[in-house]
Amino acid sequence: MVRNARGQVSEARSRLLETATRIFYAEGLHSVGIDRIVAEAKVTRATLYRHFPSKDELVVAYLQAVGQADRAQVGEALGSGKPVPDIVRAIAGSIAAGIQSAVFRGCAFLNAAAEYPDPEHPVHKAVLAHREWFLGTITDLFAQIGETPPELAGRHFVMLRDGAMAAGCLSDPVEVCDTFLQGVEGILEHRLGSTSRKAAAGSA
Predict the structure, then answer these.
(1) Nearest C-alpha neighbor of 125 from the set 109, 105, 108
(2) Annotated domain spans of the chain
(3) Is the CB of residue 94 less than 8 Å from the CB of residue 73?
């Protein structure tokens, strides 16, 4: 990462990444060329390649920036001090809010995976790394709720999230989010019910 004399991230790099993030998310990855990004960021091609030696590296940086925003959002919920079920609800609520936003164009990571299907490609690997973090975080939360293994619940949450992200672009996002949030509530009820069932069995 290129920094200026004060050790700060270059303004040109920030402008390039902000421009790429806006256009990539709105219009797709393959359809947006370097010349378009250079023109809208008001930098030279040499400046772009000094910060991002290839378009692939710029795409990976874009996904990492989106991922950092996701991590900050989840981190806010984790640091709220709320009971774990309410943390899960808060994460689901933030996902629903994103789907209902005016600029929503689907999941940046699912969109990128569709354009870069090769599992060995750096862009695809960046997608998988983010999904691994998200699945692990959600699974760890479910491990604190209920008595049964949490892996299925974690995968269930992520699949509900993926479906909501896809359906949110195709039908009424309010209805999609209601369905998603009800599904998350069903997972929580099942997890919390497993604790009650174990307690009842123990007292029988």
Answers:
(1) 109
(2) 1-53, 56-203
(3) yes
CB-hemisphere CA count at 13 Å for 24? 27
CATH fold of 1-53, please?
Arc Repressor Mutant, subunit A (1.10.10)
Query: Which runs of consecutive H residues, i.e. helices, occur in 100-121?
Result: 108-115
pLDDT band at 156 (very low <50, low <70, confident <90, very high): very high
Q: Nearest 5 degrees, angle CA 62-CA 139-CA 71?
A: 30
**What are the tens digits of pLDDT across the range 120-151?**
999 999 999 999 999 999 999 999 999 999 99
The C-alpha angle 14, 20, 23, rounded to 5 degrees, equals: 140
**CATH code for the part of the protein at 56-203:** 1.10.357.10
- Alpha-carbon distance values, 16 to 48, 53, 67, 145 (Å): 7, 13, 17, 43
